[in-house]
Design goal:
84% of the residues lie in helices and 0% in strands. With 213 residues, it is mostly helical. The chain is globular, with a radius of gyration of 17 Å. The chain starts with a helix and ends with a helix.
Length: 213
Amino acid sequence: MTPVAWALLALAGAFAIADWLGVVHADRRLRWVGKPGVMVLLMAVALALHPVSENQRNIFLAALLLSLFGDIYLLLSGERWFIAGLAAFLAAHLAYIAGFVAGGVRPGLLAISAPAVALVSVLAGSRILISVRSSGGGWRLAPLALYLLAISTMVALAAAGGRPLALAGAALFYVSDGLIAWSRFVRPLPWAPLPIIVAYHLAQAALVVSLTG
């Protein structure tokens, strides 16, 4: 990590704290500054550091940009914006998958990580999908199942890359998205909004820093 990258990462942390305060105090002005600001600064961090793989960095930048669009969509109200946010983050996970493949995957680690992630996804995801179907939202089943498959693949590949920081980032992303899905489709979790955004920001930061090896 270069000094510039560290400085930008610290600034991203300040914007993240502003967004967390916006969540706690339901302040949309803080959220509109903090949430997109974090992603813009993390893109700058990615550009400022010395990556192990230039190709992987470029693909991660695409994932961060797609995440920025997803963040903006989810700040807007209404079902159509939630769907747009879901689509943007699905594309971001696909980009991260491509990035992890570009960075290298160890078959032995993949043989361990894939079944482990699949088991967790089946146990947690089936409960979410059953709730969606029973609530009359059958049309959501296919896109949600596709999203679950994408983020599960992303976590498995992150683990198979052999970089602990990348695995931590992917796992935190999984937890953040899982809390969103559970709170929205299974039962409301009043305490969840702050952990969701904290886990999300830590996930994206860890994924960016993992580019250095």
